[in-house]
User: Which sequence fits this backbone?
């Protein structure tokens, strides 16, 4: 039984079919990367898994339990946490308050305020600062920390490197290294293919709402992923 | 038919042409009413016209301008007050009524500068405060003698049937003029601006729509219309007791008419006014329960059918009788697409 | 004149009290509840019924009425505010106005046109006074209302700033979508916030009834006073609302000292002047009631 399974999931944005009949499964402790051009449906997919987007069809399963009808705020208590695209911190509240909010509806577990501070050392001096005054890297760390405070079994990371300087991204992934080996199931959306090939055990490439490539990073070449990313070497998908 | 693009933009449909012809015919028939109807019925028709004006004006402000005002009664009261003052100064009462409408409209212009900077509920209640203050200030006028009020005495100079007919025609003319003016406004560039603002104010501003100027125009127009309605009400009621004109119940009536009829639709305001007129005719005597019913119905519509009756009909049947917008005829294009 | 001002300050306490629920609800849900005043009057009538028919002292009556107001607030949010907000930003204004009309007229139907007061049921408290240096007498009730206002305002602020649920309320008001993503049930939070707001409304209703008289249609005026106090006080802090209430009340009292007719004129006039001055100075701030949490 997989930690997270998506079966024949379809998602719409108004009249647009953002995700079409997508199925995949993530094993416990796996780190799976979701890649694809903008508009491929990655963010919509993550939001649907987190419960913020109602599916037009298909199902989502957490540890074998169908959670398709469960509202977002209850999925947190079941172990799913999303770090949204664009961070979405509560700008008027302090770092500490943002982190404490993450704890409210989560589960019991090892993650505490102190542990988050230890994982992201750059946050410690900014503990009482209003989230809106933080740098990009600090904001991203806070957003991830907020999700971790709920002690998720499945952590969804949506474009955590977006808008960050390369050095900040490096620092972020350094902090995340331990997390990625700790046994938390992680699904991350990431634009940087090099990083993807390094941190993820499996890569899924999406194009126009469908999965066009899925494979272990150890055995899949970067070029193959790039081709799939741009839809090269594939038969034209029917509308 | 544009052969290249395959679609057609049209303003008038067969239905709307028929509707407009019907409106013209009815209006013509209404002109002759004083020769056909008795005094009671004539008075009631006059009141119906007043309701239509009020509904159309409140709808213009809220449905098209996006400004919900809980204080439009201020213009009603000021319109009646101005009429009384002008008549007292010796002006012909009928002229006074029209002049009052224009004067109050002009007064609304400076008022719009601060008030239009308020948003949402703040604007709503802010207008209510303005209304309360106006009420208090009007009460100070010795002519009005506080809540005792005064009357439009000069109207008595005319004998009853002529007076009644003249008021009726003035009301009919005012209603048609205001509705016609609103119609023309909505079909013009201002109308497009209004629709854009209503859909998304920021986006409208970003494409160059002069949001504030458009709102100001609607605000002043609605004020003048409500003032004329107040003057007409005074003419039918003859007495001016400030409390009756500045009462917030008028807002309750206007909200009822527009919510039930269909907020933001031209036809909806008219439908709502007619419905309100009917409800008032049958239930008005029920006193407090009548008001409870109005409030409850307005609440129910706000929660369950916020688009009103006409709005719901429009969505279900694609019905649009009076052509204030544009229709996109995609039928040719769709036919081309489904060809194998 | 000093006496007028002091009485004004104490009256300001009442205005701050009734304004607190209005600003709280607005800062959380961005809704101005036009039935606010009518609900305060409803609470006053409820206390009246308890006192008249069941001989329950109004202070004890609060133990029944306040929880009832909390439940009413929760239901109000779920059944009216939440639904109408989904239909559009302006619809809650229409819905709450309709509700106010229903409440006012049902109260009139039930209780008639007579003005009432809770003052008859609280013994000498309704006219007890304390003497201040300088020979000025202040009503015990007036002082008590002022104290209640401060307690409520400070309590609300502390609740919002330091409790987990208060944090949840602030987060939901800032970004309900993300709040849901981190596990906060926005509907529950808003329901509780509305319940809290209506509890303050209940307290204000009690103060209204004890300090003076009320009838079925008093609600409208109370809404206007609450709104004016909130707007004068400005971009919401606790002290802002208190100050707003005081400024409004002092203006009214000074007006009343000049002429009985001027009481309301002074109040409304001051409100408009302050409003226009603030708009002009700030070049049009967005929301005047918004509380920066």
Assistant:
């Amino acid at each position: 039984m997989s930690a997270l399974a998506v079966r024949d999931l379809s998602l719409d944005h108004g009249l647009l079919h953002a995700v079409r009949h997508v199925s995949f499964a993530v094993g416990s402790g796996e780190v799976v990367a979701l890649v694809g051009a903008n508009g491929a449906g990655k963010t919509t997919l993550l939001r649907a898994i987190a419960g913020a987007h109602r599916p037009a069809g298909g199902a989502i399963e957490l540890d074998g339990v169908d959670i398709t009808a469960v509202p977002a705020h209850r999925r947190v208590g079941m172990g799913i946490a999303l770090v949204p695209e664009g961070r979405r911190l509560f700008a008027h509240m302090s770092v500490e308050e943002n982190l404490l909010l993450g704890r409210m509806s989560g589960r019991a577990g090892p993650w505490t305020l102190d542990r988050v501070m230890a994982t992201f050392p750059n946050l410690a001096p900014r503990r009482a600062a209003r989230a809106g005054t933080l740098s990009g890297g600090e904001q991203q760390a806070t957003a991830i920390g907020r999700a971790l405070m709920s002690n998720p079994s499945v952590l969804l990371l949506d474009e955590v490197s977006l808008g960050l300087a390369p050095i900040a991204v490096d620092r972020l992934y350094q902090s995340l290294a331990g997390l990625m080996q700790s046994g938390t199931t992680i699904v991350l959306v990431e634009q940087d293919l090099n990083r993807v090939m390094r941190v993820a055990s499996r890569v899924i490439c999406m194009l126009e709402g469908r999965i066009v490539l899925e494979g272990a990073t150890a055995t899949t070449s970067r070029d193959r992923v790039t081709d799939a990313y741009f839809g090269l070497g594939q038969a034209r998908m029917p509308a | 038919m544009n052969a290249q693009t395959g679609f057609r933009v049209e303003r008038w449909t067969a239905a709307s042409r028929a509707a407009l012809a019907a409106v013209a015919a009815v209006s013509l028939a209404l002109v002759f009413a004083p020769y056909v109807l008795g005094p009671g019925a004539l008075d009631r028709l006059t009141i119906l016209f007043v309701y239509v004006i009020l509904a159309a004006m409140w709808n213009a402000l809220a449905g098209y301008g996006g400004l919900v005002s809980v204080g439009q009664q201020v213009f009603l009261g000021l319109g009646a007050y101005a009429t009384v003052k002008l008549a007292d100064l010796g002006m012909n009462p009928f002229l006074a009524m029209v002049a009052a409408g224009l004067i109050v409209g002009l007064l609304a212009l400076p008022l719009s500068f601060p008030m239009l900077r308020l948003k949402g509920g703040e604007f709503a209640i802010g207008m209510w405060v303005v209304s309360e203050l106006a009420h208090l200030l009007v009460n100070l006028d010795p002519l009005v003698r506080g809540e005792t009020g005064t009357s439009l005495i000069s109207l008595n100079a005319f004998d009853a049937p002529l007076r009644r007919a003249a008021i009726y025609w003035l009301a009919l003319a005012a209603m048609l003029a205001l509705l016609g003016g609103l119609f023309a406004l909505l079909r013009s560039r201002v109308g497009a601006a209004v629709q854009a603002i209503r859909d998304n104010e920021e986006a409208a501003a970003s494409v160059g729509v002069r949001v504030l100027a458009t709102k100001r125009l609607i605000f002043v127009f609605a004020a003048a219309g409500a003032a004329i309605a107040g003057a007409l009400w005074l003419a039918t009621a003859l007495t001016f007791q400030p409390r009756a004109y500045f009462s917030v119940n008028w807002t309750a009536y206007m909200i009822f008419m527009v919510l039930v009829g269909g907020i933001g639709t031209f036809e909806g305001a008219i439908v709502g006014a007619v419905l309100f007129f009917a409800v008032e005719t049958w239930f008005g005597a029920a006193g407090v329960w009548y008001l409870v019913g109005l409030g409850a119905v307005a609440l129910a519509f706000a929660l369950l059918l916020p688009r009103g009756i006409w709005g719901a009909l429009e969505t279900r049947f694609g019905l649009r009788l009076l052509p204030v917008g544009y229709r996109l005829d995609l039928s040719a294009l769709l036919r081309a697409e489904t060809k194998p | 004149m000093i006496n007028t001002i002091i009485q004004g300050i104490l009256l300001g306490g009442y205005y701050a009290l009734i304004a607190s629920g209005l600003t709280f609800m607005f800062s959380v849900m961005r809704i101005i509840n036009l039935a606010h005043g009518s609900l305060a009057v409803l609470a006053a009538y409820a206390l009246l019924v308890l006192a008249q028919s069941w001989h329950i002292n109004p202070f004890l009556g609060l133990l029944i009425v306040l929880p009832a107001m909390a439940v009413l607030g929760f239901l109000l949010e779920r059944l009216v505010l939440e639904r109408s907000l989904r239909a559009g930003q302006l619809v809650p204004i229409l819905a709450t106005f309709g509700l106010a009309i229903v409440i006012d007229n049902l109260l009139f139907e039930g209780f008639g046109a007579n003005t009432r007061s809770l003052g008859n049921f609280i013994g000498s408290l309704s006219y007890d006074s304390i003497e201040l240096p300088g020979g000025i007498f202040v009503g015990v009730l007036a002082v008590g209302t002022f104290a209640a206002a401060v307690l409520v305002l400070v309590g609300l602020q502390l609740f919002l700033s330091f409790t987990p649920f208060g944090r949840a309320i602030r987060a939901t008001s800032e970004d309900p979508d993300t709040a849901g993503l981190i596990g906060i049930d926005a509907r529950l939070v808003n329901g509780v916030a509305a319940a809290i707001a209506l509890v303050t409304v209940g307290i204000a209703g009690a103060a209204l009834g004890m300090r003076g008289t009320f009838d079925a249609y008093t609600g409208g005026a109370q809404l206007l006073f609450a709104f004016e106090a909130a707007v004068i006080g400005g971009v919401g802090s606790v002290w802002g609302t208190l100050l707003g209430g005081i400024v409004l009340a002092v203006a009214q009292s000074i007006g009343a000292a000049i002429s009985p007719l001027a009481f309301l004129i002074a109040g409304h006039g001051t409100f408009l002047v302050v409003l226009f001055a603030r708009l002009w100075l700030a070049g049009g701030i967005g929301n005047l009631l918004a509380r920066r949490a």
